[in-house]
Amino acid sequence: MSGASKTRPRSEPAGERNRSAGIPLPRPTALSRPHWDGCREGVLRFQRCRDCGAAVFIPQPVCPGCFGDGLRWVESSGRGTVYSYTVVHRPPSPAFAVPYVVVIAELEEGWHMLSNLVACDPADVSVDMPIEVVFERESAEITLPRFRPARSG
Ligand code: ZN
Asked: How far apart are CA 106 and CA 130, in angstroms?
């Protein structure tokens, strides 16, 4: 059992540094932690209301559909389409390498998520394009869910 693996040293192997190193990262809260834990484990989680069936993201304490407390965490397939997108050419800070694509992903379970599209030329992005989640490790705690064009088959 390697329960000690949680306490990693601060310096990471050079290979884990990528071009987005240094970007500001999310800080999980008690409410959002199941989502971030899932990303680290390679699973995309969102909330589903057991009372009205609503798919909910970003994490909420009560269901925005029926105001009930029946939200539970479930796993997404990670597949969806581009609902909307924009190409960023002027970075909010030098830590962001431009150009990059910001997407609103529409997941097949009927919920939306703001993310990045990677492995795709910005000129090739289009609305309704099939995409799938990829998980990119940014730190010991944070793995970001991003999307790439879906691979057929
Ligand atoms: Zn509900």
From this structure: 10
